[in-house]
Design goal:
Number of helices: 2
Radius of gyration: 18 Å
Distance between the termini: 10 Å
Largest sheet: 12 strands, antiparallel
Strand content: over 45%
Helix content: under 10%
Number of strands: 14
Order of helices and strands: EEEEEHEEHEEEEEEE
């Protein structure tokens, strides 16, 4: 859930339902919950570039999800800085952040996203994202492509598919699909 609490402030609460296959069994339950606030303190219309911060606190729920491998144990506090610039139909976003973690080493996050609007209701996206240990000894870098398609005034279809890049800790393929409801 996201709530726009003004032109430059957004409140967020997220509680995913996770389904995972492991050891010939299907595990399902609540993933880690996340609460955050996004504040855009520079706006592209006035300053030529948008700059924001989006601190988020992640925690596990009192369920069996940690034991089943559906949620991480402990809490995390993500402290990012985000920049965005639009060039006609192309939007470029960058992010750098530090992720404090209770039960694991802290991480550095870097990301770059490009989005183009070929049609009024369609947005195509490409992302390059890397999460590394604060000493850069290990990293998980991914590339993915996706889209947002406006179905109605209140509903948007979201999907993406990607893969870990060579040199990452784990090589994997991933997909994401969802429907966004706007009220």
């Amino acid at each position: 859930m996201n709530y726009g609490a003004g032109d430059h402030l957004q409140l967020k609460f997220e509680m995913p339902y996770v389904v995972r296959t492991a050891d010939q069994a299907i595990h399902a339950g609540l993933g880690n919950s996340k609460i955050g606030v996004k504040w855009r303190f520079l706006d592209e219309s006035g300053q030529g570039v948008s700059v924001s911060t989006y601190p988020q606190f992640t925690f596990n729920n009192p369920t069996t999800s940690v034991r089943q491998g559906l949620a991480d144990d402990g809490w995390q506090m993500f402290l990012p800085l985000e920049c965005s610039k639009t060039f006609r139909k192309l939007q470029v976003d960058g992010e750098a952040g530090y992720n404090l973690q209770r039960k694991r080493p802290d991480e550095l996050w870097l990301g770059l996203v490009a989005a183009v609007h070929p049609l009024a209701r369609v947005e195509l996206l490409g992302e390059l994202h890397s999460i590394g240990s604060r000493h850069f000894s290990e990293n998980e870098s991914v590339f993915d492509l996706g889209s947002r398609i406006k179905l109605t005034r209140l509903n948007t279809l979201l999907f993406a598919a990607g893969r870990s890049l060579p040199g990452s800790v784990a090589v994997r393929f991933f997909t994401y699909a969802g429907v966004q409801f706007t009220f």
